[in-house]
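As described in the Methods, two query proteins were run sequentially through the folding procedure within a single session, without resetting any intermediate state between them. The first query and its resulting structure tokens are shown here.
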Amino acid sequence: MVSPSHNSMLFFLFFTANLWVCFVPSTAELQRFEHPVKADGSLSFLVVGDWGRKGLYNQSLVATQMGVVGEKLDIDFVISTGDNFYENGLTGVSDPAFNKSFINIYTASSLQKQWYNVLGNHDYSGDVEAQLSPILTKMDHRWFCLRSFIVNAGFAEFFFVDTTPFMNEYFTDPKEYTYDWKGILPRQEYLSNLLKDVDSALRDSTAKWKIVIGHHTIKSAGQHGITIELEEQLLPILQANNIDLYVNGHDHCLEHISSTNSQIQFLTSGGGSKAWGGDIREWNPEELKLYHDGQGFMSMQITQTHVDIVFYDVFGNVLHKWGISKGHDAAEL
């Protein structure tokens, strides 16, 4: 369950059966929401990306295993790294794809928790405002999607960043796609404000763990590789504010890159449905801890002192484990 931050007395509130959502005006654009931890002080969740294909390309199989792992870990929520609906997002709030790719697929009882969603490039080639609409939340209480926002869980804070507008090629060479840029233009003003807000929020954060989520890769050995725009504009802010994890989708794989020049771990969970077999670039083996060119997802368990990350394939097999304690060196498990 998510609840709003009360750093302002002026807000807009709407209610669904299981969710209170509050939009809080403040000096920064990033809205902040609260998510409680378990009674034992822990937090656990799943991460999946690039999934919305009406159950095809093993989306349903991945969803089944997510349900199994979700029950075992008693997850608190699910994070989607974007590209929620293929090929061209949603056509509107009544698009049957919302049922066929989300409601009817992630049916396990353990997955009936909050879903925090960011937008991917394929989502931007549909009606973006449909995915942002509270109407979808009324249709399914799990759905929560904004362009950029913060979820505060006390010792862990999650910063969701809208990365699609950073990509130059979507503006200069959109190919067969028609992107929905309502709310983005003028683009440079939007990006400038977003970067300032992310920097400010990270700088002000007192959380033990800072985790940033975006759709696009910053570092990846997959098809899309390094995203120059994010490497030049967003990464310096993440490094300056000592974040712990950058989590993304976009490359249809599962991947863990451990940076050799900062503490940041780069985690790709983009295997929610269609994967790109055999599509891997050369990468420093000291950094590349995992590259799996198939479907799957990721879990994360967090306490005040420790983070444990596990990657699973489409059959629920464990591909890779990694953990870190604050004040200690990271260790593969």
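Immediately afterward, the second query was submitted; its sequence and tokens are:
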Amino acid sequence: MKNRHFLLVIVCLLSIKGPLTSTSAGTGIPPNDLILSTEDYSIFEDSSTPIVPVIEPTNAGTLQWCDYNACREKQTPCEVLSTSLGCLCPGFTLHNQHPEPPSLSSVSWNGSAVVVWWCAPNSYITSYVVTVEGGEKQTLRADQRRAALSQIDHKAEVCVVAVNYAGDSARSCMEYQPSSNSLALTVGLIGGTLGFLLLILLAVLLCRRRRQKKEEARHV
């Protein structure tokens, strides 16, 4: 009787062990008929490429250069236009730096005076100083771009200097040739002299004519 019970226990154990072995229970190894697809793991992988945000400039192409001409007289300084209008200016040196020299463009006779023209440098300016070699000197405002000098009847160097709180710039100079001025002056003097001589001659002739008429009247 005991042997029968023992056999039943062995049979039960074998019946239980068979399916456990077929499933490889407790080994952590999946059974041979169980195939796992690699596609199932794609849901756990971040296969998407990272998105780099593109920041487009909001004000691209909207900024413009200020309506500023360095050779124009009596205009608002470019830095003031830039602050008020948001426009662009060329690079300017500061008030505590020596200014760059102005650009002297012409020195010419206009019929009544010698006129000097220049263009402003890209610097902070408080005034300009125009000098004639061995003669005249003028100080002008920062918004001026020309100076009218008195007559220069000789060859001379004319210079312009920019000034600010830090000091003076280098000189910008041009040699003035008074040839056309002298020619006009000479022609004028000659013409005036000849006209004056003609007037004197006419006056003398009139006086003589009157005397002759008086003498003829007496003889009659």
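Confidence is low (pLDDT under 50) at residues 18-26, 40-45, 47-60. We note this only descriptively and draw no conclusion about the first query from it.
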